[in-house]
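User: What would this chain look like folded?
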Amino acid sequence: MDIATFVGFLCGATLLFYATLGSAGGMQNMGMYWDWSSAMLVYGGTFGSVFVGFPFSDVVQVFKVAINAFRHKPVSPVRIINDMVRYAEVARRDGILALESVTGEITDEFMVKGIQLAVDGTDPALIESILSTELDWIMERHRKGKQIFDTLAKYAPAYGMLGTLIGLVAMLKNLTDPAAIGPGMALALLTTMYGALGAYFVFIPVADKLDNRSREEYFVKQIVIRGVLSIQSGDNPRIVEQQLKTFLPPRARAAAERRR
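Assistant: Here's the prediction, encoded as structure tokens.
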């Protein structure tokens, strides 16, 4: 589980709870912040619009993608570099065909494909083209997931405002009935709150998290592509290491040197 995401949601939810608890004057009054019709209007309308704008399969799939925001395990670029250097040593010592025996221990399908292409003697330009194209499609799938959450964040406040207008109309049509003013005003204000809460506490943070995950994966896979090409060309393991470390910022590069 990603600790930062868990802690962020936990802290946010806790602070929101205590803020509403304090303004409600105790647990017995917390029900004033919940209204089924308001929630159905905002979230039902938001998801309904997303289903209109995107293919059904994409919307369903994006919820699986969102789980990555919680359970994603970041891949260390330094570990990837160390692995590629180790594979370069095997290829240098035993020949590139010996790398076929190490693919079973690799869990990253992208890296396995790259090494297999190198073992098969594929032209370096073709290897780069194949891996770059696959990486482009991976990024496209990630972009689509982020786009759906961005769209959810766009629609939620709009439906909150729509609920506010509905509530105000109900309230103004019943100004002569004091008992009807309260429910109308509650609907007007709660829909705005639900729209803002959904957009700024859930949808936008998840979209930003998915974007960061995508950037991290792109960075790591660029290292893999460069490493595979370097191994395929028969570069010395130390040269492979130096080439791949250029991807790291100076501080991370120095830390990697100290751990050797």
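The chain has a mean pLDDT of 84. If you want, I can go into more detail on any region.
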